[in-house]
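task queued by scheduler; priority normal; single chain, no ligands, no partner chains; default sampling; output format set to structure tokens
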Amino acid sequence: IKEIRAAIAARRLVEASNKLKQAQADCAHVSPALFTDLGSVQRELDAAIQQAINDVAVNTGKCEYVIAHQLADQVNQVRPGAFTPAFMATLRQQAQAQSDARTFLETGLEAINRKDVKGAIASLKQAQGVPNLPQCIRDNVAKLLTELEKRHSLTELPDRVQVDTQVGHYVAAGRLIAPV
């Protein structure tokens, strides 16, 4: 019973369900007290499964598709049909896209930490190109990309103004600094 409760607490629902079924089969005729305890554990597992179902919705709402998919997959293993095949297929695509985009986003973060704005912009553009990327992630990447592109244009501005003034294109240099 302790192992089953530990699996429930760790959100290892498939493991908890399998251990509970085994315990119920092995201990059904041992003692009424043990059978009562197993019934209590069953209710705990049912509550954990319901919480996992709710957490799938919460995590998709928070744009955490990898976590949502992991939970939904566990729930469907212990409660087949809890989520429709169409929902699971979509969630699987979104989780994979989020995972694929994370690779680029982590590279972009490393570039930002190195103060490599061009590298960060390139990584974010690659992240945007990931197929099936959920809209909430796409929106966040677009906001960050816009901010980085603004910063990049400002960091290049002094060099561009200097080149224009050196060759006598004062009007062009003035146009560059006018928005600032």
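post-processing summary
- The chain is about 80% helix and 0% strand.
- The mean pLDDT is 86.
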